[in-house]
Amino acid sequence: INNIFYTFILKELFFKKVSKAFIFNNKTKRGKRDY
């Protein structure tokens, strides 16, 4: 159960990082400021 919880947290962090990077890329590419 600990392992499942750990992987879940890792996945959450990973998705947050990816979505943040994606938003940043969109902002810089088109000059958009919406998050």
In short:
83% of the residues lie in helices and 0% in strands. The protein has 35 residues and is mainly α.
For the structure shown, list the relevant keywords.
35 residues, mainly alpha, rod-shaped
Describe the structure.
By secondary structure, the protein is mainly alpha-helical. It has one domain. The protein is about 85% helix and about 0% strand. It has one helix and no strands. The radius of gyration is 14 Å and the shape is rod-shaped. It starts with a helix and ends in a 5-residue tail after the last helix. About 0% of the residues are buried. The mean pLDDT is about 80.
The global form is rod-shaped
Given the helix and strand composition, which structural class is it?
mainly alpha
The average pLDDT score comes to 78
Low-confidence segments, given as residue ranges, are none
- Please state roughly what percent of the residues sit in beta strands, choosing from under 5%, 5-15%, 15-25%, 25-35%, 35-45% or over 45%: under 5%
Question: What Rg is obtained from the alpha carbons, in whole angstroms?
Answer: 14 Å
Helix content: over 70%
Number of strands: 0
